[in-house]
Amino acid sequence: MKKWIRVILLVGLFMLVGCGAKKTEGGKQEIVIMATDRVENLLKEFIVTYNKESEDYFITYEDFSEDMANYDRMVSNINARIVSDRCPDLVLINYNFFQTYMDGKALEDLEPYLKKSEVLSEEDFLQPVLDAMKKEDAVYGLPKYFNMQVMGGRTSKMGQKQGWSIEEFITYFEENPDVLLEWDGDSYGILNFCMRYGLDEYVDFEQGKCSFNGSEFKELLTKIKALNRDSSHTENWKSIVEEGGNIMLEFSINSFNDYMRMEEEYQDELTVRGYPTGQGKFKCRLLPSMSMGILAKSKNKDAAWDVLEKYMAWDFGNMEFSAMRESFDAQLTEAKREPDESDNPVHDGIMMELPKKLVLTRRQEEQIMLALENAVPDNIMWDEIREMVTLGALEYFNGKKDLEEAANMIQSRVQLYLDEQK
After folding, report:
1. How far apart are CA 232 and CA 230, in angstroms?
2. What is the tens place of the pLDDT at every residue in 345-361?
3. Which of 161, 167, 234, 313 is deepest in the core (most CB within 10 A)?
4. pLDDT digits (tens, 9 = 90+) for 187-244
5. Is residue 60 part of a domain?
6. pTM for this structure?
7. Nearest residue to 163 (alpha-carbon basis) of 113, 119, 198
8. Which residues are CB-contacts of 109 (< 8 A; sequence separation ≥ 6)?
């Protein structure tokens, strides 16, 4: 998110005014859900059912996804809606917005509600996913689903090791000139992979200092440029896969079945290696989805919590991993179930041929569970610094600046940003 947009949004959130009275309909009080992502179709049945069953409240829904193509305008419209005199009660939070809302004091701490609830508790959630919605033990949103973004490759080529350092990552390219990425395989993309969870090699976040003009970072840029990698193999990727090529992947794991289908597609076992880190720790990217929070200035917080409890219990038929422990365990049990007659049901006397049911192996289960244990969510500060670093390095990779100029430019920009955060 652009820095000036963040500042405006944070200032606006700190200046929230009291919300006016909501509409009533047939004696029911209105509860407004605002969404920052495209989820309207999934919500329709839930909202209709809730409005039929509730004797006291009815839900209305506000969707900002039409502005998705114009990000700046979408942020401005959402901000204006929050600070209006009739601010919404609940927000379906795209994780890109979550930390900004949380830092701007726009979200209610749900910890007291969870402690009092007879329906929900923290123990109902997978801990790594719920932790992504927390700050200093306060819970600012409840995740409904999640997926993970990982890096990996064919086990036959890459081996079974999980986790690697930035140095090991670059060495792998140097020692395997035949390794191919479907996309983002040029110098810019490789550096971006290194910086996703490797920034702390060059940034001391506690001290607010960085060292991008030091010898270690300049050596990294030199090695990446020397790789002289092609940017994309998308057009001939199918033939590369079919011929058993040495591939490196960045891919999403949305479900157990999703991972099994990936191995079917690549006709090989896949190792989830993780993103390179400074110390070689195994890390993957955690992406909570359809998370919901209560806005701090809502005048209907108890009613909003009632909606939130029912929302978390609703089955949306989503194909992603469930963030709820019981549902996640059920997904795992189903993934390990051997196929039977129910997998090819009979309709009007005719057997319906469905896609072959795959059965999750112990190895696949271990890969996914270990990825979950080591998955971490996005961080706004890390994202903004990574963008400064990769865009600055692009000037060197393209030959527009020499190594010293590019490193000094990155150092100056990142240090200024860190100083502004103090």
Report:
1. 6
2. 666 666 566 678 899 99
3. 167
4. 999 999 999 999 999 999 999 999 999 999 999 999 999 999 877 788 889 999 999 9
5. yes
6. 0.89
7. 198
8. 138, 139, 140
